[in-house]
Each structure stands twice: as structure tokens, then as C-alpha cells.
UniProtKB/TrEMBL annotation:
Protein name: Aminoglycoside phosphotransferase
Domain Aminoglycoside phosphotransferase: 42-258
Pfam families according to UniProt: APH
Any GO molecular function: transferase activity
Organism of derivation: Thermoclostridium stercorarium (strain ATCC 35414 / DSM 8532 / NCIMB 11754) (Clostridium stercorarium)
Keywords: Transferase
Length: 310
């Protein structure tokens, strides 16, 4: 164990002396702003990696504590141990990898889509005034038109030296519709998850059901289309259309979801450009994303399977 892991163990021991620490796993890659310790597959501790990232832990605890009364999906019980340390119950399940999802039969895929749709429908329809009274703030992704235009201009300027003409045109075609339509970024803010990636959607292979939703660090008021965009970005538009059957998505929301899905890669490229400029690669991670390409071993409905020779 390294020094930080030993320090984390001491913090847990001093706060919960009765807790059995015979089995503890550390995860320093899945948390964007925090290090994670899983104790006996029962309790999860999150330690803020930076002073400023403690706010994300507090936000998760506050949001989850508030929305539990409105959501039927299992959510972890989250509490703050120290200003920079949180504790939550362990939720069994594995990330909803797209490869696993698309190998399920269509009935099971629909059942999973319905679970996600129900969760988002309930979350997005929590009364705004009640959330405001509870002190829930904005998600980091709650940006208006002016903020997005500035974000896009800055991003293009930073990544341009590393882009071919093809990539520049590709990006222009993504951005242009959003820039030219002055009403593109108009929406009524609702409570959103803000980071609905597959590793925050836990799935049980035996029951073939979602067992819980985690990762509420960036939850708050924002554009509901952003949650749809994250699903589209990682699980594909075809799966989002399954969600659409149970939680209808308007054409305006769908276009913004596509924008968010497309632009997320370029936002990461912008961050990498900043790392190159500062020579600080401490936040560098290799992302894994899927497109609407079937996983190896899956069978397309439009492809005939060649029978095996006897």
C-alpha cells in the first residue's frame, strides 16, 4: 500500500473502529475527483483528491438525500464523514457495458430501458421549488447560450493546432446548427443526474435488472437533454429510442442530446490540450466509448447466421 492508502485506512479506523477492514479495495481511476475505498463490499468511502473537489462529495450527499423520496430506483445512502470524505452503502452490480446490454434479448433490453426511463422521468419531474428550498444548486453542465458559445470558441481555438482540415469541418458541422439557432439552448432547468455513464448504472447479470444508480457528484439543475446525451454517447441512439418508448423525448431534446454526445469527445480533447500546455497530466485518463456498432459475438437482425458444419 502507498502512503495515501495507509492514510485513508487510518481515517476509516478512527471514524468507524468497529468496521472490519480485512477486505478493502482501492480504486483511484473511476472517481474523476476522488479516490474510492470499498470495504467488504458493504461500504464505500470517497476521499476528495483535491481541496476544491470536496464540493462534489457534499453535492452528492445533499442531492441523494433529497431525491430519495421521489425515486423508486435503489439509491445509495450517502453521508459526509469529514468535509472531504463521504461514506455510502455499497450497491451490488456491474457497470452497464454496452457490449453486455446489446447481447441481451430484446425483451430484456426493453426492461432495462424502462428502468432507466422511469428513473429519469421521476428525477426530471421532481418539483423545482422543493429542490430549491432544499438548497439544491446547478449542475456544472447547466450552461446558457452565451456560456456555450464562449465554451465552443475556446475549445476550437485550443484544439485547432492539432486538427486536420477534415476534423475541423467535422466539428464545424456539429457546432453550426447550435450556433445558428438562437433558441437551441433554451430549456427549463430540472434536476438532472449530470454524469449518467455506464459505470454509474449498475446492472445485475443474474436478475438482468439495474440494481442502482450512483455517481451524483455533478447532479443538480440543468438541461434534461444532457442526461439523454450521456446515454446516447455511451449506449447509442438506438438504445435511447428504447428509453423514448417509456419517457418520450421531444425533437428539440433529441437534437441537444446529439449535440452533447458529439461534443463530449472534443471537450476532453480540449482538456488534453491544456495538459500539454501546462505539462500536467495528473488528470489524464483514456476514455472508452461505444458507437452504434454491435459488439463482437452479437447477431444483427439483418444478417443471416451461417449454420455450422456438422
Amino acid at each position: 500500500m502507498n502512503s495515501s492508502e495507509l492514510r485513508y485506512i487510518e481515517i476509516i479506523k478512527s471514524s468507524f473502529p468497529q468496521l472490519d477492514l480485512s477486505r478493502i479495495e482501492f480504486n483511484k481511476t473511476d472517481g474523476t475527483h476522488s479516490d474510492i475505498a470499498i470495504v467488504n463490499n458493504e461500504v464505500v468511502f470517497k476521499f476528495a483528491r483535491y481541496d476544491w473537489s470536496a464540493a462534489y462529495l457534499r453535492n452528492e450527499a445533499e442531492v441523494v438525500g433529497f431525491i430519495r423520496d421521489f425515486i423508486t430506483m435503489d439509491l445509495p445512502k450517502v453521508e459526509m464523514v469529514y468535509p472531504n470524505v463521504s461514506k455510502r452503502s455499497f450497491v451490488k452490480g456491474s457497470p452497464l457495458y454496452r457490449n453486455i446490454l446489446l447481447k441481451l434479448d430484446h425483451h430484456t433490453q426493453d426492461a432495462v430501458a424502462r428502468q432507466i426511463a422511469t428513473f429519469l422521468d421521476q428525477l426530471h419531474n421532481i418539483p423545482v421549488k422543493k429542490a430549491q428550498y432544499a438548497g439544491i444548486g446547478d449542475s456544472q453542465m447547466n450552461k446558457n447560450r452565451e456560456e456555450w458559445l464562449l465554451e465552443l470558441e475556446t475549445m476550437q481555438r485550443k484544439i485547432a493546432p492539432y486538427c486536420t482540415e477534415y476534423v475541423k469541418e467535422y466539428l464545424r458541422q456539429i457546432i453550426q446548427p447550435a450556433v445558428e439557432n438562437e433558441e437551441f439552448f433554451e430549456f427549463q432547468p430540472v434536476l438532472i443526474h449530470g454524469d449518467l455513464k455506464p459505470n454509474h448504472i449498475l446492472f445485475d447479470k443474474s436478475s438482468r435488472r439495474i440494481t442502482g444508480i450512483i455517481g451524483f457528484d455533478n447532479a443538480g439543475f440543468g438541461d434534461p437533454a444532457y442526461d439523454f446525451g450521456m446515454l446516447m454517447d455511451h449506449l447509442g441512439e438506438n438504445f435511447l429510442m428504447r428509453v423514448n418508448k417509456y419517457y418520450p423525448i421531444t425533437s428539440e431534446y433529441l437534437d441537444r442530446a446529439r449535440f452533447y454526445a458529439y461534443i463530449s469527445n472534443f471537450m476532453w480533447y480540449r482538456d488534453i490540450c491544456d495538459m500539454i500546455a501546462t505539462r500536467d497530466f495528473s488528470r489524464f485518463q483514456i476514455p472508452a466509448k461505444d458507437r452504434d456498432i454491435l459488439p463482437l459475438g452479437a447477431t444483427s437482425q439483418n444478417v443471416r447466421v451461417k449454420p455450422q458444419r456438422k
